[in-house]
TrEMBL record:
Keywords, ordered alphabetically: Hydrolase, Ligase
GO molecular function: ligase activity
Signal sequence residues: none
Keyword Ligase attached: yes
InterPro entries: Cyclic_Pdiesterase (IPR009097), RNA_CPDase (IPR004175)
Protein name, per record: 2'-5' RNA ligase family protein
Domain of life: Bacteria
Length: 174
């Protein structure tokens, strides 16, 4: 999910503050800030069939817009020597809309697979140093769409947007 411009600006400033306070490295560029909903894998590119499947499935998902609030910063655990993502996140029980979208999309893509737990998060930077969980000034916005992003491995440039779908105000289909 792509945040609006005001949230991108606030997240960028927060990332800079965390880097200065904790001696972190590798801030995520503003044009790459997003909230991860799920991954379709780490292949170099989706095949034409996979892309058509993902787009067609996404177009059928019906969830109402929702407010997303991220108010904690922390580092995800990683193996020794690996860079840890420093992320913004929020309490899982406060994200009913996010979880409804995650469940609907996962169930549409992979109906036979159990839906994995997911924490809404936005990666701000990567560093070997860990950031302890801490409250931060909240970033909040109304999510009105979700997007399929392609990350060209090794690229620091913007993601390629392969599709974007509005959320349905009535939550009943488009």
């Amino acid at each position: 999910m792509l945040p609006d411009a005001a949230v991108v600006q606030a997240a960028n400033a927060l990332g800079q503050s965390l880097i200065a306070r904790h001696g972190l490295q590798a801030q995520v560029r503003a044009e790459r800030l997003h909230v991860t909903l799920m991954s379709l894998g780490w292949a170099h590119a989706l095949s034409a069939e996979q892309l058509a499947w993902a787009r067609g499935t996404a177009a059928r998902v019906s969830v109402a817009p929702f407010t997303l609030r991220l108010d904690r910063a922390l580092s995800f655990d990683r193996p020794a020597r690996a860079k840890r993502p420093c992320v913004l996140c929020g309490p899982g029980d406060a994200h009913a809309g996010f979880h409804a979208l995650h469940v609907a999309l996962h169930a549409a893509l992979w109906p036979a697979r159990p839906v994995p737990a997911v924490m809404p998060h936005m990666t701000l930077c990567y560093s070997h140093q860990a950031v302890p969980a801490q409250a931060v000034a909240p970033l909040e916005w109304t999510v009105r769409s979700f997007a399929l992003l392609h990350n060209l491995r090794g690229s620091s440039g913007p993601y390629e947007v392969l599709g974007e779908w509005p959320l349905d105000a009535a939550g009943t289909g488009q």
